[in-house]
Amino acid sequence: MTAAGAGDDRPGAVVCGTRFGRIYLRALGLPASPYRLRGVVARGSERSRACAEYYGVPLYHEVDDVPGDVELACVVVGSGLAGGPGAALAERFLDRGMHVLQEHPLHPDELACCLRAAHREGVTYHVDTLFVHVEPVRRFVASARRLLARQQAIFVEATCAYQVLYTLLDVLGAALGGLRVRALSVTPPEPSPFRTVKGELAGVPFAVRVQHELDPGQPDNHAHLLHRITIGTEGGQLTLVNTHGPVVWSPRPHLPAEPANAVRLGDSPAPHLDLPSARVIGSADAPSYRQAVDTLWPEAILRAVSALRDEDGRAHGQRQLRLARFAREVNELLGPVRLVRRPDPTVLGAEAVLPYAEANPAREGHASSGRAARVAP
């Protein structure tokens, strides 16, 4: 694959880092990208050289090596919270007068320094939390805002992996319309992978169960799930089943008083009894994880890139500062993450849990899809 060259008048962009940066490279390599990929900035590992060669762009080892006419740097290198130089690299790009899109998470102090550098140089700096731009999450947020325009939220329950806690808090803020936080507390440690943080967010009581453990040898793996969220109102609950969908509406179960003396409860004239007890909003089929990393996530990054061009950088920065402080407070309550070491899981397809009578005999004994770990038949 080669990057667009002569005749392509899109502004140029580089990607700094090639671990998760490979998703950004995939995004900027798409025809719909508003920027043309102009290079990879990395130390020079075999992976980085292979990425630069695949996309047909130069591999730069230093920020100062990047041509001055490049307009955007996507910094996908861990920052201080992960023991990396990401924030310092972002500042150097900003000091050179380039816009910067930086992958989360950041400490609030790092974020403030980058925002000041962007203001000083007259460029735009955004933090990308990725998942808030993923299509099923966007559908959930849009549905939540429509719901909350009609009824007040009564509760929020959510579950997430430690690795994506920062992004879960961002999605909750987007769905509820704010990041006003109060009365945070955390459950005592227990013999469970999860710890629960409680409080109020945008005036709504919430509880977030966090899988508070990490394998240092595989920090991106061993999550039981990424995100799951339910917003409850008087009329029902809206649920994002997982990061990639589906989104489900469940009307509240309520037996009306009219049939108190009736022989058959179903004789009640109450119209809500005819509503489906659950309804999928949008597609009922969630994509495979292969489709997620190859299509959904790169498309989400393009939305973040477009937002950097179209949205007010100062307003974005203030919101990200509130998010970073919220995430820091939650992490301080949780305390040090529990370190674990585990073998690769045996990942199952749906065939493994179908009742025997519903299973497809033609597929019996065949492996289910998915190749990220061992796959059971």
Helix content: 25-40%
Overall body shape: elongated
What is the H level of CATH, i.e. the homologous superfamily of the largest domain?
Answer: Dihydrodipicolinate Reductase, domain 2
Q: Can you give the mean pLDDT?
A: 91
Q: What is the N-to-C succession of helices and strands?
A: EHEHEEHEHEHEHEEEEEEEEHHEEE
- Give the spatial strand order of the biggest sheet: 8-9-10-7-12-13-14-15
Kindly provide the radius of gyration, computed on alpha-carbon positions and rounded to a whole number of angstroms. Answer: 23 Å
Regions with little confidence, pLDDT below 50 for 5+ residues? 364-372
Summed up, the helix count is 8
Describe the sheet with the most strands. 8 strands, mixed
> What name is given to the CATH topology of the largest domain?
Dihydrodipicolinate Reductase, domain 2
CATH class descriptor name of the largest domain: Alpha Beta
The helix/strand class is: alpha/beta
Structure description:
- The protein is α/β, with parallel strands linked by helices and 377 residues long.
- It has 8 helices and 18 strands.
- β4, α3 (86-95) and β5 (99-103) form a beta-alpha-beta unit.
- The strands form 4 sheets. Strands 8-9-10-7-12-13-14-15 form an 8-stranded mixed sheet, covered by helices on one side.
- The protein has 3 domains: 12-128, NAD(P)-binding Rossmann-like Domain (Rossmann fold), CATH 3.40.50; 133-294, 2-Layer Sandwich (Dihydrodipicolinate Reductase, domain 2), CATH 3.30.360; 347-375, no CATH class.
- The protein is 30% helix and 23% strand.
Keywords:
single chain, 377 residues, alpha/beta, Rossmann fold, Dihydrodipicolinate Reductase, domain 2, 8-stranded mixed beta sheet, 6-stranded parallel beta sheet, 8 helices, 30% helix, 23% strand, elongated
